[in-house]
Every structure is written in C-alpha cells, then in structure tokens.
C-alpha cells in the first residue's frame, strides 16, 4: 500500500558486511497499479486482514471509515459492504484510478477516493468512526505525527486498526527502497499508540505469508493487527 510520497522504485538490495540497508529511490506505484491485484498473495492478505478487523471491531451500517494507504482498494472492498461510507486515501493517483474503476463497475455509492500526500504536507480532514491502514506504516519514516492526525479526526470513541509486519530483518520486500521500518516490535508500537492518546490497545496476528527471500529459500512472515480506541 502506498501513501505519503513514498512511491518507491524497486532496486536491488544494498548489502554491506551482511547488513541489508535501505535506499530511498522512489518507486513508481502508478506504474505498478494496473497489475497490483494480479498477485494472489496480496489479495489473500487483504482478505485475511479484513477478517481480523471484522473480528476485533464491530462494523456497523452507521460507521464512516477512512482507509489510509488504500492502494487499489483491496481492503476497502472487503469492508465497504458492512459500513456506511469509506473514504479511501492514497498518494498514488494510479492506484486510485484502479480503485475508481472498481467503484464505477460495481456501482458503489458508499466509497469515495481522495489523493492524500502527507509527505508533501497533506492534511487529513473529516470525521471518522474507524481508521484502517494495511501494510503502509513501514513506508512512513515517522509514524508519530500520522497517529496524532488519526487521533484528531476520529470521533469520540472512534477506533483504529493498523495492520503491518512483525520484525522481518529486511527480508520481506524484494527491495527495501523506501522501507523505513523492517517490521515493528509490537510492544514498542503499542507504546507509540499510547503516546498519541489511544487506549484499550490490543494486538493479534492477522495473517501469515510464506514467500521467497533474498539469497534463496523461503520464510514465513507474520502480519499483526493493532487496534486502539480514542
């Protein structure tokens, strides 16, 4: 999922003395958008995360949702039947074009898209009962101001559901260009949620992915869902 001027172009790993490092060359998510949904693992991951969200958060027909870093709307499409509205935000116009096509083809009236680039001082606006984000936070250098913005636009007792990688040692992506976090430590992230004002913080495993890794072989990666309440 892309957001916040983090459209990072894939390049080979930079490996020095056995340490996988990051390169910040931008990736063209617009170019990737047309084939984004062709990856069955990516599609299944969105389904698993949506299932976990529905199990942890009571989705209701009166709920207005922000899906932050929506990409082509894989998570958005799973959630939209159960809520009143979803605002799908992303910094890739190409991704949003794909999602807009889905919205038109399915004649959906409760989903709208917005271009939001927090890396260029984009400001989140609106009022929401729930904010979701899937596989976006590891592309954000400083998540603290993002969480504070989430808190500010949530309605009283509003909730967040953030899905991302557990610590992956830099092995999950084919390239770590633009990856600012090699996964997250759950306890540390929970403390960051608390610092932003959230309470009743819970975390669970939402999905597991087995995929090839750099250097050969394969590895299982886990994706957590962390929820919190305003």
Overview of the structural elements:
The protein has six helices and nine strands. It is 27% helix and 29% strand. Strand 1 and strand 2 form a beta hairpin. The protein has a seven-stranded mixed beta sheet. It has a two-stranded antiparallel ribbon with strand order 1-2. The chain has one domain: Vaccinia Virus protein VP39 (Rossmann fold). With 230 residues, the chain is α/β, with parallel strands linked by helices.
Task: Give a short summary of the structure.
The chain is α/β, with parallel strands linked by helices and 230 residues long.
CATH top level class name: Alpha Beta
- Report the CATH topology name: Rossmann fold
Q: Rounded to an integer, what's the Rg over CA atoms?
A: 17 Å
Order of helices and strands: EEHHEHEHEEHEHEE
Write out the CATH superfamily name.
Vaccinia Virus protein VP39
Number of beta strands: 9
Q: In CATH terms, what is the architecture?
A: 3-Layer(aba) Sandwich
Low-confidence residue ranges: 2-19
What key attributes describe this structure?
globular; 9 strands; two-stranded antiparallel ribbon; 230 residues; alpha/beta; Rossmann fold; single chain; 7-stranded mixed beta sheet; disordered N terminus; 6 helices; 29% strand
